[in-house]
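ingest -> fold -> write
write: protein_1
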Amino acid sequence: MKAMILAGGFGTRLAEETDVRPKPMVEIGGRPIIWHIMKHYAKHGINEFVICLGYKSEYVKKFFLDYSETLSDFTVDLATQGITIHERKAENWKVTLVDTGLNTMTGGRIKRAISYVLPDQIFCLTYGDGLSNVDITGTVKFHKSHGKLATLTAVTPPGRYGVLDIDSHNRVKGFREKITSDQYRINGGFFVLDPKVVDLIDDDQTLWEQGPMTRLAANDELRSWIHDGFWQPMDTLREKILLEELWKSGNPPWEN
């Protein structure tokens, strides 16, 4: 089974970082956020990845081309430029990098990369800019159980503000963090899909989150896996700093 990762957007809301590199390559704890995402999938036995590139695609390609050598101990013969690897250190991953176009929308990227997914095998899909401890194994099992074309992960968005506890007399009794019941759920971006969903994608300008998903819902082909655990996108510098602080805590919640 493979996981497809959408990693081609411009990341304009994180311009402090993305002026020089694509958002999936912004580092948390010294490693690109996409690496953390892939580690989570690998923990659930998914070691094959299709990465949909666009903006600054060469940056991502270079990272994976140099990955093993960068981590490993090696000797360089400066006269011959020969390289001897002494101990190769790398994850057991197979990564396919697909240039899906600079201005292609999310649905178009899926359509361009679908040929790298087996036509008779379901696959996972996610975005390259958010971390979660979602139960990937559970989502796959759930998807197989209902037999529909698509499963999305439904999450409660993290709240930026605390909640007031107010009694019937409008007295403020205290403050607390938001909880699941305080707000609605949103699409958390961790999907399990049948390759047939590509038939709902018209062209490069199709947004996966609009036409295709709307049609899946209308045709009763979309189900939701409820996730109440950790989920955090990285859309802004503030959110990047938050993830970095969680990593430095020594117990980042997306690794639990």
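write: protein_2
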Amino acid sequence: MNSKFTSVADLRNAITSKIDPVYAAKMLQPIPDMPTVKDRKRYLVEKSRDKIVLDIGCTGPISKLIKQFAKKYYGIDKTSAENIEAVELDHRPDLMPKYEDVEVIICAETLEHLSNPGYFLLALKDKYPGKTIYITVPNAGSYQVTDDCEVINKEHVCWYSYSTIKSLLTRYDFNIIESRWYNGPEYKAEGLIMVCNG
């Protein structure tokens, strides 16, 4: 940041004074002050503790811990296993099962894998209206290129920033309860946590 700017607001004002105000309002999105979670894994496990949990995209090490501390556990992923239902979330999210007793839904690092996340969100809202959902996604602000190499999971098809994940969720009428950074300093943190319900 240029030394003459003492805040993001100063920088924003300087930019907007030089471009069309309508375009500036469309392009410059404020980011609220949000707390940072130092350990995403611990945070999600604590939110699942002693709850009946639906874990979507549940093949990683976090899911093993969630299963261990949940009162009851359901999982959805591409392949089936014990307590895990196979569902093709990218093409047929409407086929995800409906478990009547679910209290909390964890959807960790899943949306960035989906070609049509809106279709998935519609199905989630239809099957689990009003349920508390913890959505985590990598933060676009953490994107980096090292020499001639992008540092990115090759299975991802998009990046989310605070503004884009908020827009996606509100477009499908999800109520955002809170938002947080995780694993790293604000704005450049590894990811975002959005707590919402449909």
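write: annotation protein_2
The chain has one domain: 37-197.
The helical segments are 8-16, 21-27, 40-48, 61-69, 117-127, 162-171.
pipeline exit 0
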